[in-house]
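Re-run with default settings, no changes from the original entry. Doing this only to confirm the output is reproducible before filing.
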Amino acid sequence: MIQVLEDNKIQDIYWVMKEWFFMTYQERIEKNIFVVSSKGAIENLIQQDYEPLAVLFGKIVDDSLGILIEQLETNFPDIPKYQVNSIIRDEIIHETCMCLYGNVESFNDNNSDDMEQLVRRVETRLTGETTDSQYSGRYKPEIRVAFRRKPLIPIKQFVENADKLLILDGVSLKINIKNLYQMAAAMKIDGVIFTKKGKNFYSSDIINALGKLSTTVPWTVAEDWPGKDMDTLKECGFTLVAMALKEDSIRLGDDCLKKNKTAVILGYERDGLEDEVINSCDYTVMIPMSHGVDSLNVACAGVIAMWELFRK
């Protein structure tokens, strides 16, 4: 148990490593760490043989959190475990707030008022100590477990026994990734491939949002997209289907799309897929729409496409 976050063992995990390092897959990440706060996701990752590196939890511990902490203690007795049991202050807050609270991009380092707000929110969240009635009862037990990343599986190896793939090329919003991944799990998709332009499961908010569902469908990141990795998919026999609003698109449901090995590709929420990706695909597909509707949310489009192409 610690009183403040100044233990050397915890610095590299919860102090030095800022959350913006975790937001997308980046070459500069050297420590291969990601931080998870969802109890369901933590349990699932342990079942998937991810290695926990450290545990940090707040003053409030309910029954379910207590059971999880006991399991971590039993199965991983040697990893450091820290409980915040006092008010946390000074500059430590700014370095640890992503692991302890959430996104702090709105806080300005030079704004003392904002900093005081941040201090108050973080310490209240972890310790449950507040005299403000408007916050009373709103704070639930908190835990943060740092895990070591697993090496990414190369595309050729990843698709070796796959027939149905979902490729997210720049999809960035948590809710969209969550909905698409849920549908991929429901449709028994063989794998999800992310590109470096968007988020993947090592982004804390994604894996926490998915909870127990996280990593139930195998996933990896395309290292060279749309270059060698797209060529590899074609060499492995996949028909590449780009979802895009283009004049030369064919309609979803066309007989030519009924292939044995298919990869559905969805792009960034705002701009969609790049022309280079679209031009390299076998087909460009558009969902038929009426009543003046000219586009759908990427998650809606992906769910419809997966249902049409993969239901058998």
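The longest strand covers residues 52-57. The chain has two domains: 8-148, 155-310.
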